[in-house]
């Protein structure tokens, strides 16, 4: 298996404060990986560093063998693109009269790897109405749209930051099913979520971030075999009773 | 899909599929859904489902056919063995619990017969 993501000695400081340090990570193709960590642990920061939205202080990030920020952008699909698109391109007055189909067209223009067929299948499954106005979307609908747009790009690495936040359980289940249905077999996906229990069956591996670095990378199965614990219980133990390793 | 947290998910999925096979929901010789379909159905990772299927192949309960997918074996003996294995597993826990109540084998058998009889009457 080839590596889709490689991070070496990554360090990130903000206002003289170390946010992430000594981060080393190597991910294979074809995996779904959970990124776990308390609020403020640096999950979002790590994802933003991978895609180049934040600039690393030092270290090396390689995605599918490429290192330049521009090259990385073309092989990573993130849920941030939409959120920044909302802010920049579709600022205020635009948002007023922009429909889902407009932003789909925008994605088609901006990303040559965008598959309209795939988007349409997902939109049908998630019951997204393309005529709907963006400003009228509920939290759940916005998240569904974000997932459909992010997964419709055919890339090697997907970064989903909290795709289940603020969403009712039925919609969470639908989003999980659509991830399973539409993720390319070869692609790798990193998902951060606080719904550890709900996504456990979706994951191959988990990355736990703690104390400004990657505390552990392990497969879900290893955790169950080694500790006889579910991922959630293990994660709580790492954070709660974690003085043994210090 | 509700899983038990501490047990590997591929084992739990294998167990569910085995029960579907011995209950004839998936008939002898019939084709199983694709890995992706099963993964969606079980809300689980495709690699996990693949692992369940791999063990089922090793245990000869399902047979892969190139380019077609996976089929339930037509060998009734294998299914019967699987059934008695699963039934035994279910009895194991109960038998141990009854034994711990200081019941001997005959008392356990008698009380089980009695239980079945009462249930049958209750159904009518």
From TrEMBL, chain A:
Keyword Nucleotide-binding part of the UniProt annotation: yes
Extent of the signal sequence: none
Keyword terms, alphabetized: ATP-binding, Nucleotide-binding
Domain ABC transporter: 5-236
Upper taxonomic lineage: Bacteria, Bacillati, Bacillota, Bacilli, Lactobacillales
InterPro entries: AAA+_ATPase (IPR003593), ABC_transporter-like_ATP-bd (IPR003439), P-loop_NTPase (IPR027417)
GO molecular function: ATP binding; ATP hydrolysis activity
Protein name: ABC transporter ATP-binding protein
UniProtKB/TrEMBL annotation, chain B:
Domain HTH gntR-type: from-to ranges: 7-75
Keyword Cell division among UniProt keywords: no
SMART domains: HTH_GNTR
PROSITE patterns (UniProt xref): HTH_GNTR
Pfam families: GntR
Record protein name field: GntR family transcriptional regulator
Alphabetical keyword list: DNA-binding, Transcription, Transcription regulation
Signal peptide stretch: none
PANTHER family: HTH-TYPE TRANSCRIPTIONAL REPRESSOR YTRA (PTHR38445:SF9)
Molecular function via GO: DNA binding; DNA-binding transcription factor activity
Top-level division of the source organism's lineage: Bacteria
Gene3D superfamilies: Winged helix-like DNA-binding domain superfamily/Winged helix DNA-binding domain
